[in-house]
Amino acid sequence: MEGMTKDKVEETRELEWALIPPREVSQVDGIVLEKNICNTWDKVWNFQAKPDDLLIASYPKAGTTWTQEIVDLIQNNGDIENSRRAPIQLRQPFLEWFRRVTPGIDQANAMSSPRTLKTHLPVQLLPPSFWEKNCKIIYVARNAKDNMVSYYYFQKMNKALPEPGSWDEYFETFMSGKVMWGSWFDHVKGWWKKKDSHPILYLFYEEMMKDPKRVIRKVMEFLGKNLKEEVLDKIVYNTSFDVMKKNPMTNYINDPEMNHNLSPFMRKGVIGDWKNQFTEAQNKRFNEEYEKHMADTSLSFCMEL
Ligand code: A3P
């Protein structure tokens, strides 16, 4: 697109985006996943983790990228330039994903150790080698209402995911758990339970928003690092929403499957945005179902400030 005006580049990107066919979905053990993943599921399931692998796991749109950037900066002792060496999806392979041609598994296998990997898989679908090798895992969860709204806008702008339909339609799809990577309820509860028998640091998007430095320190300790206060402050600043939104290595601006004009990847980054989206009736219905789904867990979430 060299020599084109900024407007022309935008227009060309929009046209190219419109022509990308949507990806298809299928299921593994009742969990909706992208078809390529399902067709090569054995390859994912038989992935060989190594004892020094670190895994960042989450339900989609829970603050994964934010956590990934925090981890990368801690691992690099706060070296900003080093963390800008490549887009986040190349620094930390997305295990089960097909990045158009290169599967995350191949990316991970080609990488030297120690590796940091990302997954959205529900706990029961995680390749068993992660448990066998006792790998450290960081899980990040976000309250269901904001998570749902964020996922809706992401499905609108990302050709790698199914078209969400109207908000009312999407509300039903999300509540039924027939979205990619399955039910939010089962996901957050499954990983929460697993932390009793495995080294999992369970984080919340909302606690990261309220006190990022405290969470960054927690992650640092989990990784066995010891960084100075000023380095922690630098990491807080460089992983703030405004800085990450402008950082091409974290904002997915160059991903051709995403249309940031429809909705930017770094969209709002707030707690309680669901209030702008849920109708009163949806909120009532959601609260009733939420209570039933969450009756068998000690897990609790902050849904507004
Ligand atoms: P919104 O759509 O609500 O804005 P994931 O990385 O799991 O896909 O999550 C994306 C969500 O995290 C988006 O939420 C995005 O704006 C938000 N996010 C990303 N980086 C953030 C940051 N540094 N601070 C706060 N929110 C952030």
From TrEMBL:
Gene name, per UniProt, is LOC109373466
Gene3D superfamilies of this UniProt entry?
P-loop containing nucleotide triphosphate hydrolases
Reactions performed catalytically: 4-ethylphenol + 3'-phosphoadenylyl sulfate = 4-ethylphenyl sulfate + adenosine 3',5'-bisphosphate + H(+)
Superkingdom of this protein's organism: Eukaryota
**InterPro entries linked to this entry:** P-loop_NTPase, Sulfotransferase_dom
Start and end of every Sulfotransferase domain?
51-297
MF terms in GO: aryl sulfotransferase activity
Q: Does the keyword Transport apply?
A: no
Its protein name is Sulfotransferase
This chain's source organism reads: Hipposideros armiger
Record's keyword terms, sorted: Cytoplasm, Transferase
